[in-house]
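Hi Y.,

Following your request, here is the sequence exactly as I used it, all 867 residues.
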Amino acid sequence: MLDSFAGNIRPHSIEEEIKDSFLSYAMSVIVSRALPDVRDGLKPVHRRVLYAMSELGLQPNRPYRKSATVVGEVIGKYHPHGDSAVYDTLVRLAQDFSMRHRLADGQGNFGSVDGDNAAAMRYTEVRMTRLATEMLRDIASDTVDFVPNFDESQREPVVLPARYPNLLVNGSEGIAVGMATKIPPHNLGEVIDATTALIDDPELDEDGILRRIKGPDFPTGGVIVGTRGLREAIATGRGSVRVQAKAHTESIKGNRTQIVFTEIPYQVNKAHLMQKIAELVKERKLQDISDLRDESDRTGMRIIIELKKEAVPKVVLNNLYKHTQLQQSFGVNLVALVDGVPRTMSYKKVLEHYVSHQFDVITRRTQYELNKARERAHILEGLVIALDNLDEVVATIRASREVASARTSLMQKFELSERQAQAILDLRLQRLTSMERQKVEQEYKDLKEKIEYLESLLANDDKVYGVIKEELAEVKAAHADERRTQLTVDESVDFEIEDLIAEEEMVISISNGGYLKSVPVNSFRKQGRGGMGVSGMELKEGDYIDHLFVTTTHHYMLFFTNKGKVYRLKVHQLPRMSRTAKGRHIANLLPLAGDERIATVIATKEFNESDYLMFATRGGIVKKTRFGDYNTPLKNEGIIAINLAEDDELISVRQVSEDEEVILVTRNGQSLRFRQDDARAQGRATGGVRGIKFRDGDAVLSMDTVSDELDLFMITEKGFGKRTPLSQFRAQGRGGQGVIAMKTDGERGKLAGVRVVNPEMHELVIVSNLGTTIRLGAETVSQQGRTAQGVRVMNLRNGDSVSALASVVSSRDSAGQESDDELSLEELVGDEVAAEAAPPTVATVDGQEGAPEPSELSENGGGATDE
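Below is the corresponding structure, written out as tokens. Let me know if you'd prefer a different format.
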């Protein structure tokens, strides 16, 4: 039987056959299905849909037609595939949450961001958008090549003229065989600006493009965090852009907060997103959320997440970004077809190919218009000759027996072409009037000018590029809009979003045992001098308040430890606790060593608020360093703030500026005042110089800045205190023994705290070892001389002693009267007392030696977390 095929059989390896067949299939998928063309940014199916709508006359000013009509036209003439594939393409072109600039104007249900499917094509209607007409403008002017369709019954364009860079404007996404593309959408105006700049300067670099194309501009908005991935994408065509949902916070009843998301990342299904959040709450991975609901409507998106009363919005946001699609990375993979071959390109290469395409489009259009103009001018030349010799023309025509002989006679007698002679024969009698003759002559004159312009355009490339720029500017003026996606330059892993958190005044307390918590400042009230206060804070046995200060949620907190290291956090990252809670251990927030504790905390919003930081150690060493040296993202393990001797520790840090003075006070009541410029500026990781000399057994207790209009308030361990004008402390040279600030003896004890105060505006907060707290106006404490021993300021229980001191700015109503309708400071530690709330001021508390030993960090040993 095989003999009958003799001569038609050839051996072929099955491996080679499979290889050839698969390669043919792969190239078909790559070229004819999955990848867009770099020139118009469209895949074949998108191109065919737009061309079919144009051929059906579905212009923006024409009535809508059923989507089924378009689908049928595309399938029947250009795209012999399933109707669902074509309709899905049409639906996407009409979705405002999928396309940055829609190319199809849909009427009916075209789906939603919740993942709802579009209605059947027999129910929906479409037509082209005005921007879509720019994709096909001049297509009838021989601007692009046409090829036969699948059955050679029609012709279709190989590429569209695309009068704007659609590949970058609307992006594209597709999976081919062995490769894929994922191109984000961008802002039309920005892309046109970059294209124009590239035409003006062909050497334009990636930075020049980045200055104009700020980044992807997604139809669903959102926030792009950082520019590093964008720079990589612009330079190489590959990169990753991190996108977060846009959110803000709102206060609701019950002193609670809710987070409102108004924009979500591109291509995120809102319904699935909310389902995921609900699952995380149910699994207790998100414990601070009390309610979740969707209030989105036709006016915009609004996802509500209500928080529990003690929740910190920043923490909730970080968890949402970590565990849900509210934060996503968009991987840019800019692959497109260049002359039918897939290429990975930078943004500059894409724009270069687009400009080259437009140069070809303008050139072909110009040549087409020139040919048409020449043809018309040729006819008009014949008409002008006929009108100049009208009588002879008429006589020649009348003398001819038939049309052919008349045409021949005209050609011979007046040296006309066949087309000119035929045009004369076709001339209507009304054109013989003088008015019509003037019109013919004017038209001929205008055509000659047009031909001259078109010829000059073809002869000068710069003029062609000028036309490209002008037409791009027209598209921008007609269709560009504002950017939807915001950008930040923060390259850190956690996006700081102070604009999502209300700037709230907070009181921060840190116990000697390392427990920290933050409480709103309006929970404080004031007592009179000599009051007992009310104890109630749930402290471990032997623990006491060591630091107390007031600031706002938008400030940085610099934590300086006794070991000379510094850590940095934002106030809104600190735990907000109930009034009866003891707080969260500092080991949960900072990686402190077992014997490391907080010495000073400085709150600052910006690092240019003062020139220097002045450091003081317990051993009498001081150091001055520029404040800006600490304006760096600190490592998790902190950085060195000052180098210390083995037996020394850091006790105080203050912000100082030019011409300021500082004062050092020791536990035995010695003081030394000197100018800050007596200490030369040193680097961050250095030691220091001698600040004050003192006898054995003494130690520096406090350092503060000086103003002669202020007083120095001092209090001893036994509750005795006084105010002494700072003018009584004369300035001395750094390194001396100083002068007496307060006499101390066994009955009153050594100094426990020192603060510089303004008696007219400051109030004092004094805390004992056992948690008893009192607040009083600084003016209620008598002013005495340097050597005086002071008066009783605080009554103490047996075995109790003063442990901490802070000052806050007093607040009074317009009449100067104190109010009594606020919560008290003692609610931070227990029950209510009548007093007045104070607005925020930074107040750092100085600790004392000889206080009760702190308890262990936890039952499991130092460094363990204890909630």
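The chain has 18 helices and 40 strands.

Thanks again,
Q.
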